[in-house]
Amino acid sequence: MTDTHSLNSWPQPYRLPDAEPYWSALSENRLTFQHCNECAQAVWPAHSFCTHCGSRSLDWRQSSGRGSVWSYSTIMRGPTPVWAAIVPYTVGFIQMDEGYFLFSQIDADPDAIAIGQRVEVRFVQRGEQKLPLFVPCDR
Fold first, then answer.
1. DSSP assigned state of 19
2. CATH number at residue 84
């Protein structure tokens, strides 16, 4: 299910400055997230302050890369030619084991995906940027 389309034709994500450590880690096949040192909550998307307690004491942590499918939708008609070339594809919210939600592609047969299903991260090169996508796992 992973793409083989021309790497140069993929639209690129909008990169907010607060999330630069996230994008840099992806280029090294690492998934990271912000963590608040005051209230110990995961903070995602990245911010300059904790969205739970307001603290500015944040650091970046390595994610396990594992979580559960919280919701998903299978796209049957791509919005642009590059996405139309790989339909059907599935996107969804993954509830990460660290307590945050990540919106991503799920690389599996759409009929084999279920709410609550365990998934783990893989990385795919899309244009100039590596991105996370998730695949089913047994754990």
1. G
2. 2.40.50.840
